[in-house]
Amino acid sequence: MSRQERVQQVMNAFGKKVIQQSRSNLTKGKKNTSKTLYNSLGYNLDVAKTGNFSLSFEMEEYGNYQDLGVSGTKKKYDTPFKYT
Which of the residue ranges 7-11, 23-27, 43-47, 75-79 would you say has the lowest mean pLDDT? Predict the structure, then answer.
């Protein structure tokens, strides 16, 4: 197996593990009621002809709010999101 194939294999395994842990966290945190966010979790591994790798993760936009929280009108949290 070439070095590039091995790196690709490791990065795919990492992507799958991150998605698995994210789904587990949603379920444990009781935030998996509609399964929309759960089912939207995914990753993309791009391999350029030059041998460079790019790994990106995707999810529904509201996943950021679930991850970082949202400040209310009276109670403030350390998050960039707030109700206005």
Answer: 75-79
Helix (H) or strand (E) holding 50: none
Instruction: Identify the pLDDT of residue 84.
Output: 67
Long-range contacts of the stretch 64-67 (C-beta < 8 A, 24+):
66/26, 66/31, 66/37
User: Nearest 5°: phi and psi at 82?
Assistant: -155, 155
Q: What's the CA dihedral at 58, 61, 64, 69 to 10 degrees?
A: -160
CA-closest candidate to residue 68, choices 58, 55, 59, 81: 81
Q: Which residues contact 36 (CB under 8 A, 6 or more apart)?
A: 60
40-68 pLDDT, tens digit each: 999 999 999 888 999 999 999 888 777 77
Token look-up 């350390």 returns 78
